[in-house]
Structures are given as structure tokens and as C-alpha cells.
Amino acid sequence: MEVGVGYAPAHHGELLQGMFYDSGGQLRRALVTLPQPSRGTRAVFHPSYSHGGILGPPELTKVRRAAMLALRRFTTHPAPAKGGLVEIVSDVPRGIGMGSSTSDVTATIRAVADFHGIELTRGEVAQLAVMAECASDSIMIDDRVVLFGHRDGVVLETFGYRLPPMFVISCDTEPAARVDTLRLQPADYDDAEVASFGVLRAALRRAVALSDTALLGRVATASARINERYLPKPHLDLLLEACLRHGGCGIQVAHSGTVAGLIFDAQLPEAEKRVRRCAAELRASASSTGIAILGLIGVSAALTGPAVLEGAALTTLDNMEVLTG
Amino acid sequence: MSLQTAFSEATETYQIPRLIRLAPNLYAACFTLMKMIPARFILRRAEEQGVLGPDTVIVETTSGTFGLALAMQGVHMNRRVVLVSDPVIDERLYRRLVDLGAVVDRVPAAAGAVPGGYQAARLARLAEVKAEHESTFCPEQYSNPDNPRSYAMVAELLLECLGQVDCVVGPVGSGGSMCGTVGNLRTVLPECRAIGVDTHHSVLFGHADGHRELRGLGMSLMPANLDHRIFDQVHWCSASAAYAATRQLHQQHALFMGPSGGAAYLAARWWAAANPSALTVVMLPDEGYRYQDTVYDDGWLRNAGHLDSSLPAEPVQVQDPSRPEGSWTAFDWGRRSYAEVMAGRLDVAQAAR
After folding, report:
1. Cβ A196–B149 below 8 Å, yes or no?
2. Which of A 222-251 lie inside 8 A of B, CB atoms?
3. Among residues A110, A254, B152, B224, which one has the fewest Cβ atoms lying within 10 Å of its Cβ?
4. Any idea which of A182-191, B74-83, B97-106 has the lowest mean pLDDT?
């Protein structure tokens, strides 16, 4: 029997998260995701033409809901499935803020669509994902950098098409802890914080447009600090201090998890050396801090212009890579 | 990424500053009417929150540009505006306010002679006006936290256009523009410096209250919206120095601005020249039209004794912020509270003995 297959990547928390005005002057909760494409979820949809229910991993109710919602979209298809079975294979750690749930849900929606031979737009996938899990990150919008209304499934702003070139040291600040996103209360931002988010949004607009990793690092750090009030990260100051001391730009966190990332400008001289020294230092103090180093994420911009090509650090970077260990 | 769009109302355009490069490391934020930012923000927010109903009368005590901004926004929002002012309100401003439909309630000239002066008389009259109407809303620019908050939009503009801003220089009155702009900028740029520009005999940074010739900055009463801990440095500028700098701004940069902006330009030009690797932004709150018969008239300047003195090249650094001396002084405020600075002043005085 034919099956449908879908894949979706993970992410590494957010570069910015808060409340922002949309073009109609409405305040919306929104975020900017930092993708982590070396991890992800593969979903396989086995259709059933007789049975209306969805079978899937019992602990993943969102996956079953996503499959159901996606199926409803295709009822006008010449040969729609009535129900089916969803298989999930994922290497995204759960409960630490790397988007395991959105990854599952998005892969599932894509698998159901794939079975019906239909290519949904990124916006359609986003809408279905939000319907399935109430709040979703924006990993399905993988062709640009967006401010994403994660409870409405709408894009508030497109900043550009690529993030600035950077290395991110991936840490789990509390390896023993797991955050249940279903139980997480939405942050209750005050007026001053909403004003700050507008300022951070403007700065991020510039950072993406000009590939300014230093400014992006400042934005991510400020967002992490504002959100400390809602889900504090142990040792945030220690991580930030280490990052800056080794020439890094700032820190980003998962606003619904325990991961944090130390951001380094990949265009800096000896960027990779700085990153490795910083990571080694954090690993050496891991027994006292309890922080686990998960790996290294590389994000690179298009290699254009002689100035960039001369940068030694970039020559070792592919588009995306993860160096673990 | 987005199309340019038309403005939905006139007041929206009045609040947007133009950023203009004056030197490689000095930019001016030029406003048509800077007070439109808090006026529009406060009124629209009050309407959203249901504090400003359809029949609510907007009341405020003001003789300046904040009243003009309220009257303009009142037109868009179809609300009555009552402004309690000094008897000495500028005649052209008065006519403009009346044309906008505002009621301008001038306290009698005799009020200036009694203790508390116009300020007390205006507050008393404001209370009467409030009692006369069933529903009133007073924006209270000196204490309403929405005043500084409204300036987040300036911080957004500076960050998007310039990215790195190392120092912001601007005149201080209510405290809203400087505290709001720099406070919000520091979300991203915590090291950004703030230089407040005041004038002699203003109470804002330690002088005793007295007659102030230079208008548009300085105060007789301490406004709650002034957070002293924002400021790294404070300058006091005389009317003569401010007028001369205002004219130079016009002559050298073709920028036709008001004298509070001129005072800020004086301090900003000096700081930017002394710190060539730092990017400085100076706030210029209004345009020159209101001052055509004064600051921009050599005859008037001569008669008022403002053409004799030459503009100093740099400020006199003072150790005591309470002494109103010289035409241009500067003091390292050091992001301290008012109380901390005044306590430090006593220490300095004791050490001198």
C-alpha cells in the first residue's frame, strides 16, 4: 500500500520572543526561531480507507490531531484517506525547547499531504500546525527569517532570507529538567516590555538586512533577559560572561525549554577557535555548573564578495553543519 | 519587503523625526513637533482603554507645544480640548489652537504676582475646569508613564537606521523624550550615553528656580517622569549660547529649528568632536517658525543683548551642579539619582572647606 512521507527539522529555541503589533495595530504573541536542521522528525502516514480514526504514538496526541486536521483538508481529493496510522521517527530531544512537538506535527502534516500528492504552502502548514497544537514555532517557514505569530499561525514580518553567519554553542542549562509546554503559562508582559520588544524587532530588522551578527546577539540577549521573569535559565549570566569573554555576541534561549545558545560571529577572525575554546571551558566546568554542551551549530550566509571570501573561518563552513562531541 | 503606504492622519507625520547626518559621527533627529509623540500615544491609548469616551473632554495645563499636539489629535478624534495657559501664551500659537477648536483658558496676569505664580493659578483653574465637565481626561505629561513609553518609536528608528548609537543628546523638560528614547535604546545598547541639556535656573538638575529666558527646556517644578539615573552628563546652556547655536545650525546645515534644539546641538557638536569614534544623535524637538521674530531676527537679538557674546568652544566643567554660572557648563551626572548627586555635592563642599 502507498504511504505518505514527511520531514521537519528541529530548532534551537528563539532569537526573539514576546508581544508585537501586527499591521492592523493588534498585539500578538510572536517569535523568531533559530532553526536546527541537523535534527528532525520523519513521519510516515499509512492510510486507511475504511477506518476513520488515526492511530499513532499514544503519547503524541498532537500528532494524531494534526493528522486528523490535515485529512479534513483533503476530503475533496479524488481518493481521500478516511483515517490511518502515523509513524514517527525523531532525533529531537523532548522537553528542552528544541521544537520536538512542532517537528512531529509538521512532519505529520507533510506526510498526509504527501500521500494525497498535494504540496501545501508553508503558510498552510503553519496554520494547520497551530490548530493542532495551539502554539507552534515557525520551522515550516524555512525559506526566510520571520516574526511568527505562534498562536495565530501568521507571519507578522519577514526580516529577510538568511540569518547572519554565526556559530552557536548549544547548551542544555538543566539536563535533568523537562518543561511541559502544555502546562506553561503564557508570559504576562507589561507595557514597558512590549515597548522593548518593538525596539528589539527594529534592531533585528537591521541585523538580518545587514548580516550583523553582533547586533543579532544583542537582540537575542535582551529577549532572553526579559523572558527570565517567566522561565529563568540557571547560569544565564555565567554563560553570557563566558561568551563575551571569548569574543561572542550574546546568548539565545528556548523560551519554552532549557536549551541556550552562545552566539559567535562566524566572520570574526579565528571564529572557530574562539568557539572551541569557549566550549572547552564550559565543558571543563560542567561538573560544577551542571550545564551540558550539546554541540555546535553553524549558520552561514551566502558567500558573496571578496571581503567575505577572505574570511578564513567561513571556508570551513557548509551551509549548515553540526559538530558534536 | 513592504510597500510604502499613505498616512492615515496628519498627526502621524508630525511625530516622525527625520534623521540627518551633520558630521561623520553626528546625526540630528529633526522633529516638526516632537510633543506629538506623547500626545498622540496617550490619547489613543486612553481611547483604547475606555478612559476617553466619546463625550470626554481633554483638559491639560500647558502653554506650549504639548497643547498644540493635543489640539491637533483632538481634531482627528473628534474630542473637545480645553487648555489652561499663562496669560503670556504666544499669540500665533493661541490663534492656531483656537482654529483647531480648542478652548484656551488663560489665567489672569495678576496671578503671576502671588505666591506659586502662574503654575499654582493654572493648577487651580484646571481643577475648576475638571469640575465643570461630567467627564474629563487629563494626559498629565509630567507624570504619565505613557509619555516616556511613547518614545520607544524613536529608539526603534535609531536602531533600524543607525544600529550602533553611542550617545544621545537632547533638551530636557518633562523628561519624557530623553528618558524614553535612551531607556528603550538601552534594551539593546546598555552602554549608550545620555547627555541632558538644561538651562540656568531650572530645577531639573539642581539649580534653584528662577527666571529662565530660554524656553522649551528646563522646569520650575520637578516632573515625576524625569528619571535622573538615565543621564551620564548634564549641560546648562544660556539663552545667548542657545540662540547662537540655533543660528549656526541653520547657517551651516540649513536646518531651521527651535532654540531648545540649538542648545542640544551646541552640546552634541562638542561631544561628537571630542569622541570621533562614537556615534552621537542629537534631538531637535521643533522647527524655527515660532522664533522667526526672535531667535532668527538680528535686531531682536541685539536689543535683547544676545549678539555681544561669542560662543564658547567648550563647556566649563563644574563640580557643583547647583551653581548657575557661565553661559555653558557641564557636569558628570554619572547615572545617579537626584538625591545621590545632591548628597555628593555636600561632600564636595565639605572637602573644599
Report:
1. no
2. 222
3. B224
4. A182-191
Residue A304 banded pLDDT, cuts 50, 70, 90 = very low
The domain ranges of chain B are: 3-30+146-343, 36-137
CB-CB: which of A195, A215, A218 is closest to B152? A195
Query: In this complex, which of B153, B184, B188 lies closest to A218 when CB atoms are compared?
Result: B188
Chain B residue numbers with beta carbons less than 8 Å from the beta carbon of A201 are: 156
Predicted local distance difference test score (pLDDT) of residue B250: 98
The 3-state secondary structure of chain A, one letter per residue: CCCEEEEEEEEEEEEEEEEEECCCCCEEEEEEEEEEEEEEEEEEEEEECCCCCEECCCCCHHHHHHHHHHHHHCCCCCCCCCEEEEEEEECCCCCCCCCHHHHHHHHHHHHHHHHCCCCCCHHHHHHHHHHHHCCCCCCCCCCCEEEEECCCCEEEEEEECCCCCEEEEEEECCCCCCCCCCCCCCCCCCHHHHHHHHHHHHHHHHHHHCCCHHHHHHHHHHHHHHHCCCCCCCCHHHHHHHHHHCCCCEEEECCCCCEEEEEEECCCCCHHHHHHHHHHHHHHCHHHHCCEEEEEEEECCCCCCHHHHHCHHHHHCCCEEEECC
* Domain B3-30+146-343 sits in CATH 3.10.20.740: no
Among A19, A199, A200, A219, most B C-beta atoms within 10 A, so best to mutate, is A199
Task: Give the pLDDT confidence of B141-192 residue by residue, as tens digits.
Answer: 999 999 999 999 999 999 999 999 999 999 999 999 999 999 999 999 999 9
Strand, coil or helix: B198? strand
Residue B187 contacts A where some CB pair is shorter than 8 Å:
yes
Is residue B350 over pLDDT 80?
Answer: no
A196: which chain B residues are within 8 Å (Cβ-Cβ)? 152, 184, 187
Structure confidence by residue, pLDDT tens digits, A265-293? 999 888 989 999 999 999 998 888 899 99
Dist. CA B50–CA A156, nearest whole Å: 27
Domain B36-137 has what CATH class? alpha beta
CB nearest B163 (choices: A192, A200, A215): A215
Q: Give the model's pLDDT for residue A57.
A: 84
